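Researcher: Please translate sequence to structure tokens.
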Amino acid sequence: MKNETLSTTTLFRSDAMQRIMAFSALIVLVIGFSIASPYFRTFDNFVGILLATSVNGVLALGATFVIITAGIDLSVGTVMTFAAVMTGVFITNLGLPIPVGVVGGVLAGSFAGFSNGVMISRMKIPPFIATLGMLYITKGLSLIISGLKPIYFNDTPLFREMAMGSLLGNIFPGFDVPNAVLILFGAALLAHIILSRTILGRYTFALGSNEEATRLSGVNVIAWKTAVYTLAGFFSGVGGVLIAARLNSAQPALGAGYELDAIAAVVIGGTSLSGGEGSISGTIIGAFIISTLTNGLRILSVPQEWQIVITGGIVIAAVFLDILRRRR
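Model: Translation complete:
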């Protein structure tokens, strides 16, 4: 009896339990909306949910690493926009090849993340303030560089195909899932490998569990924390390229609010805001919960303002469950 109680407590405290709860919530949402509306369970609508998750999911991957270190990154949305604008500058304005433009956009996002890391780790600026400042910097730079106008990719149709084409549709006729979804899962696999199989992943957890103990053990905390924020910028850069390809344009005014959805996906997926716990699979589940909830409420004609209220309530509930789990 004692061993059974101990086993149950261990399961409840583990982040695996949090992922199980999140996945169960996702299944309940899918079943509930499928019963409420026959349109929800159509193939086209499921593809729409996958596509809507692609950008937010990629941003949430980078945010996962940051939050595991007990940090925060409020700039992922505007860094995404900055990366999209830079991609437009390289491909459309300068006429560079698409691969060069894509790499340039990703590097632009990575540099913004690196700047965040330097401010936080070396200059000792609190993450909230440093990334808030970067939010405004990248937002302003996007407007300045683009001249307040969208940058279109009409002369490079292959760029849009990178996200909206369907490799699976060509292999399996009728299974037209956009490439953006494949990019999301490819990025998630890369993030999982980094988090679970590399030194950077191990130090990410160590920084979140006890940064001072990690420093005293001889780890270069400044370098590894900078690397974590650079990685978050990298994923924001990928998200910027992805959304530019999806919209066939770089919209300089876009990006505000994406950071909130990304952070919400991470928290709902079981990553603790206190640091030291988290997983990529949980983040992906959290991203799908948000997309499914938004899609289902929209189909049921729930006003957008109430959609925001419901999403906020779910985030609060997820954090409260995390607090309860840690107490036990």
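Researcher: Any highlights?
Model: Residues 1-13 have pLDDT under 50 and may be disordered.
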